[in-house]
């Protein structure tokens, strides 16, 4: 065994109209949580579909746990939550899972236990006995997640798993995925929710116009400086000098008037612990601090920096 | 495959296809009961004074009318139950979650095909028996088993043909487009067969008869459903055995059993269905979802 859950080599899908993806080479280790990022129309779903065997590559190769993607052996190892799906509304949640259990070749007793366990785990519980026409979009999403996990797969492909969920649902899904990662499952997460990717994934790749633009471990990506904003009263230019003296020349400071006599200070820090020192310093200089916060998720920042100025075909007319 | 077959049945039952079909069939049975009573009790102009032939003619009229409706009911049930089999499922994302499972694609296709065909076949068999029972109650004529079984087989033969054609269409066309396409194709087949029947009775005299014959022949090849239906009635009424003894067709007038499928067309139809099924399986295997 190579130790890789996913290996792709120059994977290409050419739809003939510029869409698809070109020469994608990725390796994801067993037990790794991988975040796949990219603007709309970048080709993320195309790659997921090739890996799950739903579409055939024009050229290149993909392997799931050493088996060519699309083969029965490869599909036995995976669970998949599609981006856009709607299960038949004339079935109950339990019936959908029971049908998928048959397709996963689970025996009846094991399927029954697994279905009940998963319904509880995704928060559907006894509503699994209701027909799907009474399900909200969020409940459908939870059911889809249960479906993806039904066969106890080694790798789970999740295409926007939290897209229809409220904040509580999002949190629950994140917790569930963290548990899966703890169990040694490989997770392939295709999501626009960068905060989730940042918290869950070991590795990320950024796709744009069908090509992998950047790839790396999340910890490396996050080594970038982070930006903090503080709203203070009584700000003087002396404060900027003192901050530079305290943090060294690497610290970038900028300020803007908030309009109510207070000033917004923006600081680019090397690590989060420095914000405590800044707080101390500003209070010592006689300023009042009203607000302190990070401007945005760091992966957001990384993503924005990577794609700003690039042309995205998903937005082309 | 069995799981997919079962799911197809569940779908047809839960989506109230069964309920609506049963309601419409009961309404038809009521109308058919009165119609059969009227024909059985009314005066029929038969060229012979033999009571047996008179009764036979009455029952032939009743059954021809019954199967005229029956053919449409079975055809539309076959078409509209399978119209969204592939693209419809793909549009809702159901197919994507299923085909990522360790199941061979041909098994999904065959499971759906068997589900639709078996479901409509059971309905068609019940309809077939009910039409005969109503006719028998009113006329006292019960057909020989040697005639009933082949004609039932031919009545059912239309189902795999229509389901296969519809499912192949559903690999490419959206459910709405596929429904329209199949209805028009079926209608064209029926019209072609009707024109053929008129031509055979010599009631149609127009210029370019040869072109028209070629055209109806081509339509028959694309949609042999009505030709199979005509052959079904021909087998039931033993038209070939009565040839030279009694001209039932002149009594049936507009509903005469002309243009029945020849043995060659029967063989062609079987090959056609097998080819459509093979094409469907191949398309399903190669298609991107």
UniProtKB/TrEMBL annotation, chain A:
Top-level taxonomic group: Bacteria
SMART domains: AAA
Pfam family, one: ABC_tran
Keyword Phosphoprotein listed: no
Domain ABC transporter: start-end pairs: 6-234
Molecular-function GO term, any one: ATP binding
Swiss-Prot/TrEMBL keywords: ATP-binding, Nucleotide-binding, Transport
Family of the protein in this entry: Belongs to the ABC transporter superfamily.
Family matches, as PANTHER family: ABC TRANSPORTER, ATP-BINDING PROTEIN (PTHR43335)
Record-given protein name: ABC-2 type transport system ATP-binding protein
Protein species of origin: Paenibacillus endophyticus
Automatic annotation (TrEMBL), chain B:
Keyword field contains Transmembrane: yes
Sequence intervals crossing the membrane: 17-40, 60-80, 113-139, 151-173, 180-200, 265-284
Keywords: Membrane, Transmembrane, Transmembrane helix
Source superkingdom: Bacteria
Name of one Pfam family that matches: ABC2_membrane_2
Descriptive protein name: ABC-type transport system involved in multi-copper enzyme maturation permease subunit
Naturally occurring in which organism (per UniProt): Paenibacillus endophyticus
